[in-house]
Amino acid sequence: MLLIKNGRVLDPSSKTDALIDILIDGPRIMRVGPDLSASQIDIFDASGMIVAPGFIDLHCHLREPGQELSETIETGTRAAARGGFTAVCTMPNTQPVNDNASVTRGIVERAAAAGAVRVWPIGAASVGSKGEALAEIAAMKDAGIVAVSDDGKPVATARLMRQVMDYCRSLDLPVIDHCEDPSLFAGGVMREGPRSIRLGLKGIPAQSESICVGRDVEVAMLTGARLHIAHMSARASLEYVRSAKAQGLQVTCEVTPHHFTLIDEDVRYDSHYKMNPPLASGEDRAALIEGLADGSVDAIATDHAPHHPSSKDVEFDRAPFGIIGFETALALALSELAHPGKISLIRLVDLFTTGPARVLGIERKIAADEPADLTIFSLDHTWTYHTSDSPSRSRNTPFDGRTFRGAPMATIVAGKIVYRR
Amino acid sequence: MLQRLQHLLGIEDLTREQVSFILDQAKPFQEFQRHPLKKLATLRGKTVALAFFENSTRTRISFATAAARLGADTMNLQAESSSLKKGESLLDTVWTLEALRPDGIVIRHSSSGAPEFVAQRLGIPVVNAGDGTHEHPTQALLDALTIRDRKSTLDGLRLTILGDILHSRVARSNIHLLSKFGAHVTLCGPAMWVPRELESLAPNVRRVTHIDEALDGADVIIVLRVQTERLHEPSLAPEEYILQFQLTPERLRLAGKDALVLHPGPMIRGLEIDPGVADGPQSCVLEQVTNGLAIRMALLYHLVGGAASEPAAGPGTAGKEK
Fold it and tell me: Do A197 and B195 lie within an 8 Å CB cutoff?
């Protein structure tokens, strides 16, 4: 048994914000209340710390199977644990693509054997994510997927999206779309604007994303399915999501830490500033932060996208898109959103816990009989992020060497402390 | 105080004083091109690596000749023959070149930022000979030298650039350079090649739709090549381009008889420029080529010859240790 004592428990599901203790027995929470004690137990003293439901990351790439030079389920989930995540949703663009139940089962089995935290696979929407035939979505659901997506690219056509949504509605699965219009994207490498003009780098207009979000919202209206917009970066996209929510559609969205922290003007000839969607304008960033504050944005998701150092250490326009993000997500949310007072602490916790849980259609709360998945973090602990300390196999981040105030202090999955600072 | 250059990666980050310094340094090398014996010993014992990852004839020959006339040896890397074709990374290629111990490296590359990427990872001076759609600093410097010779000043010029500005590294470097001297810049070309954001490159940059308006009152006109190979967009029909944007003798009259016409080459007569303009008295195209040698000699002398030209260094110190 494990007793979490003296922590400030923040649980958005019950709007709890109190100094109470949590007693864990095996994989589940046994009791929650003030001044708990028991004999023969381990005690975690959470004095001065926040105790939250376990963080969920809706969007990451663990690269297994097939790209183990960049990351594995083992190394990726160890990095996730250091970031305070107790469950991570891994995108299907592996090799082979997770488009059938046997690949899904392989991921689930590997995660059970080597994963430091829970791994919830996302299945491909179409075979090979090629945008043609539907993947074996029902069989993958039985094997453990929690959503479908052709992430890395958009669901290819409105017609295919309609079929995917119709089918997923019958299976009660959310459809996650990576929104981009390939004809506007057209080989771009950063957001189109004054900075791309100055650097001479091919620009991608914001409309590449928002046109696709608009399409998806229309198809969600047609089908009534659950639609989730991945890594949303543009103000115009947020407007589509707001209007969809106002009409009562089941449309949700996520924002990454890098999109609420950096903008296109930060881009330099360093591929650690190259991600897709690209870093957006200052105006977009301000709009995203507003959406994070007012509830229009449902979740913070990392889009942890490891790439082996040699593949990133090349000319900007030849480098692959993406950065790693597990270990810096909470610290960036604290320093960019909560510390400056742009969002409340309970809202921050919501964005990492109950928010993503709602997207997946599950509950996330601290109560007796619930799974003992908890994230314990400090608001003040000052630390410097060094990629050289990371269990991840990749180093691609613009935040290496950055000093933060606030950090995950312990990550508890199914009653076990899987990470402790 | 004049900040000594370590590399020449672009014009944007240079000061006005640094630009003037380079132009002044080029003066003696301009005169030198008229000597019957065109060989100096200034950089004897030095080696300049010419790493042209993108095809180039004019710029490569200009740098190679500049190095030769300074007495330096060159090592050549060309796109077709390089191991890049075998999948070697840029970094491995330049590390290999560096291991041959050159004293400086000149890089042309189709990726914007490649020279800066290399400069951050090597310990020798890097000269950008054109990177993607970013900058072509030696072109802007040779253009400035040409303009200064003819106009006797660079201050407050009315500059008009015609053509595909979006994809032009020559345009960017020229805008940065002449804006440091208070230029008013007018950009004109098919609208999809002249996006609004170009106006943020420097103060007093404007866009004009019609070529007649763009030429009115211009002191200097830079005609860009229509770089069809660089375009991702569907290109315009040549007839449409010629009718709307070709610099013809009639149109040039709008700019006045003192206006200069520059072209970075290679020039396609009959497309972006009428032969009558290209060969006319206002055309500076051949002076540009000769001035390119002077600018590149001055830069190599300054960047590569740095150690040897310092007062403390005497004979025999040319082969510096790394």
Answer: yes
CB B102 within 8 A of CB B75: yes
Q: Where residue A32 sits, what CATH number does that domain have? A: 2.30.40.10
What pLDDT sits at residue A360?
A: 98
Reading across the β-sheet that carries B47-52, which strands appear in turn? B73-78, B47-52, B104-109, B126-131
Residue B108 falls in the annotated catalytic set: yes
Asked if residue A60 and residue A46 are part of one domain, the reply reads: no
At residue B57's C-alpha, the angle toward residues B8 and B86, to 5°, is: 85
Selection from B84, B227, B91, B221 nearest residue B167 by Cα: B227
Q: In angstroms, how far is the first alpha carbon of chain A from the final one? A: 20
Q: A199 vs B112: CB contact, 8 Å cut-off?
A: yes
What pTM was computed for the model?
A: 0.94
Q: Are residues A101 and A123 in the same domain?
A: yes
Percent of chain A whose predicted confidence (pLDDT) is above 70: 100
Residues in A closer than 8 angstroms to B113, CB to CB, are 199-201, 269, 315-316
Same domain, yes or no: A116 and A23 = no
**Does residue B250 register a pLDDT over 90?**
yes
Mean pLDDT of chain B: 91
A303 is catalytic: yes
Domain count of chain A?
Answer: 2
Q: Which residue of B has its CA nearest to A315?
A: B114
Reported as a single tens digit per residue, the pLDDT across A56-110 is: 999 999 999 999 999 999 999 999 999 999 999 999 999 999 999 999 999 999 9
Q: For A234-281, what is each residue's pLDDT tens digit?
A: 999 999 999 999 999 999 999 999 999 999 999 999 999 999 999 999
Residue-number span of the structural domain to which A260 is assigned = 55-360
What pairing do the DSSP bridges indicate for beta strands A55-60 and A16-19?
unpaired
Q: Does CATH place domain B16-135+292-309 in 3.40.50.1980?
A: no
pLDDT confidence of A337, banded at 50, 70, 90?
very high
pLDDT band at B88 (very low <50, low <70, confident <90, very high): confident
pLDDT of residue B256: 84
pLDDT-derived band at B309 (thresholds 50, 70, 90) equals very low
Are A157 and A286 contained in the same domain? yes
- The answer to whether the B16-135+292-309 and B137-288 domains have the same CATH topology is yes
The CATH number that domain B137-288 falls under is 3.40.50.1370
* Residues A276-335: tens digit of each pLDDT: 999 999 999 999 999 999 999 999 999 999 999 999 999 999 999 999 999 999 999 999
Name the closest residue on chain B to residue A310, using Cα atoms. B89
**Are A26 and A126 within one domain?**
no
pLDDT at position B159 is 98
Whether A179 and A70 share a structural domain: yes
Nearest to B133 among A194, A200, A314 (CB): A200
Residue boundaries of the structural domains of chain B: 16-135+292-309, 137-288
To the query of whether residue B59 is one of the catalytic residues in this protein, the response is yes
| String of DSSP letters for B270-286 | TTTB-HHHHTSTTB-HH
In this model, does residue B6 exceed pLDDT 80? yes
